[in-house]
Amino acid sequence: MTAFRLAAGELRRITAGRLPKLAVLALVLVPLLYGSLYVYANWDPYGRLNKVPAALVVADTGAKTPDGKEVHAGAEVADELGRSGAFNWHRVSAADAEQGVHDGKYTFALTIPADFSQALVSPAQFQPRQGILVLTTNDANNYLVSTIADKVVDEVRRAVATRVGTEAADRFLLGFSTISDKLRQAVDGANKLADGSKQAADGAAQLDVGQHRLADGSRQLADGSATAASGAAALADGLGQLRQKTADMPAQTRQLADGANRVADGAARVADGNAQVATKAGVAADASQQVVNNLDTIRSNIASQLTGLGLSEAQVQQALAALDTGVAPVRQANARIQTDVGQLRQLSDGSRQVADGARQVANGANQLASATPALTGAIGQASDGSNQLRDGTAKLASGAATLRDGEQQAVSGTDKLAGGTAQLRDGNRTMADQLGAATGAVPDPNDPTRQATARTIGDPVAIQNTGMATAGTYGAGLAPFFLGLALWVGAFVLFLLLRPLSPRALAARQPALRIAVGGWLPAALLGVAQATLLFAVVTTLIGVHPAHPLAAYGFLLLTTLAFTAMIHGLNAYFGAVGKFLALVLLVLQLTTAGGTFPWQTTPDPLHPLHLALPLSYVVDAMRHLLYGGGLATMGEDVTVLASYLLAGLVLSTVAAYKQRVWTPTKLKPELVL
């Protein structure tokens, strides 16, 4: 009796009859139903999210940008969501949305508030605040859909932020272009200002030179006017003294005229006493000569003083002519007196002639007396004019001094003006140079560059997915986990019909290894059928396309051989308790294999179970075989499963060895499943 004969006998036993055959067929189909339906049901849930009802509340009232552009971001977001097909959106009121989420009519609700657009344009008004999207969820409807909705809303938020950021960056960069244009205009203006300030500086320098010359002239004018004022004062004093001295001249000339008249009257008596007359005539001759001598001196002084008073030469000569006219008879009389005095002693008989001469002298004295008031009047006028000249020149000197002081202040001002305009010239040139340098430092991109830069600033980071191995769909991603579980479940249900060990072989005291292998082979053969059917349906009808199909199929066969050996060993050794232990191992592997989330996310106490139980290695190996990528861990995965296969056969061999001895517990077990 070989192991194969024992296996064939067990297969004949479970297929004897129509219903047993159907039962075996059902057991073979269990992994197919479990694995394929799980993969099929979860094949592409994200692609069918458009069947999930979601409420959309658009309360946004819109806004205006500072340049007057209308913004209706809420309506744009709503339209974009409708075109995306992410969910089955229903635009409803806020009350209907809240009630719908509460009642389960809508899985979740997204509300775009009234101030959404206003918030988006608020940074342009330097009153920034965020736009709020309100997501209302109800985990009682579905937890995972709420989680997916979080991701969708976050993507909407990112897209809106990218667009708003791009528009803001575009306006910002456009501002740079405007600044650059204005800077160029400012540079032109600064250059013109620098040129103008240079001309102003040159003019100020020339003004300063002219002002210095004017100040020198004003000092010379002040000195000359002071000298003129001093001379005018001296002239006024001299004319005043002359006026005082000539004030009695009319009376004196009148006295002279009276004397001459008396001489003429006494000329008749001259003859009576020539000696006496001669003596008196000598006295008269001396007086007459003195008068003549004084007239010459007076004439010279008057001429000089009248000229110094500023009278014209014609006026001076007119005054002197009047004076000469008045004193000419005096001179003639003096000459005659001098002649007569010498001849008196000789011309005793010419007394009559002397009397006539005396009369002439008297007439001349009368003329002189008549002319003297005009002379003294002219001297008075000259004195008054010299006083006016003195006052005028004094005022001129005072004004010239004031002008000199003002010009000195003006010189100081023009010095400062020249220095200030020179600084202004240098400052304007520096400003023009710095503005020119700043113009080159301010970016001035063209429209395509500005728009591309704005898009980059608004969305600076892009994700480039490089898939070393890609599952494709959600169901394909879960296929390694579901296939492994299906084969464990398939191996588990096989022993609902199969007996772990043949009682006939045990009674015949066959070798334990032969009994163990003979008990395992039927499960192994049915497991191979299960794996083959499962692999065929999943890869053809469901749509999983393995990167390494032959290796994937071979590993599934190794998996089913290992799982059937393990469950066979548990059932053979522990009996009914072995089924329970197989179920416990199923639960433990569900939680530790890392089929959905990475196994590192499980609590730390479960990590040793992940490393110890076989389903973890099945999931790891099938991922690489289905999706592609490196096969570096395949050796470890195959080794672990082969080890579990051998461990199961060893356990069942030990069980067969022990069960060759019949015990009361074996004859009457306490628990039968």
TrEMBL record:
Keyword tRNA processing: no
GO molecular function: ABC-type transporter activity
Transmembrane segments: 474-498, 519-544, 550-573, 580-599, 638-657
GO CC annotations on file: membrane
Superkingdom field: Bacteria
Keywords attached to this entry: Membrane, Transmembrane, Transmembrane helix
Cellular compartments annotated: Membrane
Keyword presence, Transmembrane helix: yes
Renumbered residue ranges of the record's region Disordered: 401-425
Domain ABC-2 type transporter transmembrane: 470-652
Pfam families cross-referenced by the UniProt entry: ABC2_membrane_3
InterPro entries noted in UniProt: ABC2_TM, Phage_infect_YhgE_C, Phage_infect_YhgE_N, T7SS_ABC-Transporter, xxxLxxG_rpt
Membrane topology of the entry: Multi-pass membrane protein
Main location: membrane
Name listed for the protein in its UniProt record: ABC transporter
Species, as recorded: Gandjariella thermophila
